[in-house]
Amino acid sequence: MTHFLPWQQAPARRWLAARERFAHAWLIHGLAGCGQMEFALAGAASLLCEAPRDGLACGECQACRWVQAGNHPDLRRIRSDAQAVREGAMDVAEDAKKQPSREIRIEQIRSLLPWFNTATHRGGWRVALLYPAESLNTIAANALLKILEEPPEHTVFLLAAQAPDRLLPTLVSRCRRLPLAVPPAAEAQAWLESQGVKDAAARLAVAGGAPLLALEQAREGRPVTPDWLELFLDQAGNGGDGAALADMLQAGEPADWVDGFQRLWLDLSLAAHGLPPRYHPGQAGRIMAIARKLDPAALARAADWLRSQRRLVNHPLNPKLLADHAARYLLQSVQPR
């Protein structure tokens, strides 16, 4: 994607208006699913465009065609192997036991050094796009920091991140921050409907207002309410030992269901204070019924536990043990006082 999403165009014009005094490094961050990577790539296209219109890429010049084809000599995209596989830019490893790396490695940062020493193709900008920036491992992050301390001429670094707090503070300090807001619900819903998404309002709510996440879930055919969440609500209301729930959790990615539980926990906390749920309005009746009976102290302890697991969930020591413990502990946390 080399154009800005509808809700990004106004902030993009403001951002690009001062390109003659542009910072050498930008940290573009916001809620997952709101389009940080898309914004950064469209920003790179606009910086490289030879005939920008109102500050944005024209989409028609030679530079724009090169960006669209993925072969512009003054643009480098640095991302993890896992991200490249998701984009279809890299084949899955033939050895099934070897998973694509989720980290940006120092070799990828070092590969930029010869590029910095060459002249730009047409005397304009050179753009290095890194995403997701939080996947930089410590060694790679320090190597990038050294580059940013003495940045090469005519070069702009665009770092797209969903969790900037996971980046080295010294690296963040070398960047200008550009936070992206969650788009207005009406605009995001209209865009989802234009993409052919049914139940756009419900999907947008479940995704926390993040339209790209809602679109991804719809295209993957995921139900609006995940099966494991349906089972959890059933067992929370009717009792259950958590064995079936643990089996469902084991079949999914820990990062997905821990995030999902955190959203459900916010809905339960809101319901406990008589407020409507934010993420699952379609399950309001069941959530309110559970919230009326639960122990607020147990709910708060479980929320703290979920936060602690969220920090470790990308590298769980034992996913099966985590799923078993989560199913039993979280069900116990919502039992009647």
Q: CATH fold name of the largest domain, please?
A: Rossmann fold
**Count of the separate structural domains:** 3
Superfamily (CATH H level) name of the largest domain:
P-loop containing nucleotide triphosphate hydrolases
Helix content: 40-55%
Per CATH, the architecture of the largest domain is: 3-Layer(aba) Sandwich
Radius of gyration: 22 Å
- Could you spell the SSE succession in H and E letters? HEHHEHHHEHEHEHHHHHHHHH
Tell me the number of strands: 5
Largest sheet geometry: 5 strands, parallel
Which word captures the global form? elongated
Low-confidence stretches: none
Which class do the helix and strand fractions yield?
A: alpha/beta
The CATH class assignment of the largest domain is: Alpha Beta
User: What is the percentage of strand-forming residues?
Assistant: 5-15%
Quaternary state of this entry equals single chain
Count of helical segments? 17
**Average pLDDT value?**
92
Termini Cα gap: 51 Å
Could you please describe the fold and organization of this structure?
This protein has 337 residues and is α/β, with parallel strands linked by helices. The protein folds into three domains: 6-179, P-loop containing nucleotide triphosphate hydrolases (Rossmann fold); 185-219; 227-333. 50% of the residues lie in helices and 7% in strands. A five-stranded parallel β-sheet has the order 2-3-4-1-5, covered by helices on one side. Strand 3, helix 7 (138-149) and strand 4 form a beta-alpha-beta unit. Helix 14 (254-272) crosses helix 15 (284-293). The N and C termini lie far apart (51 Å). The model has no long low-confidence stretch (mean pLDDT 92).
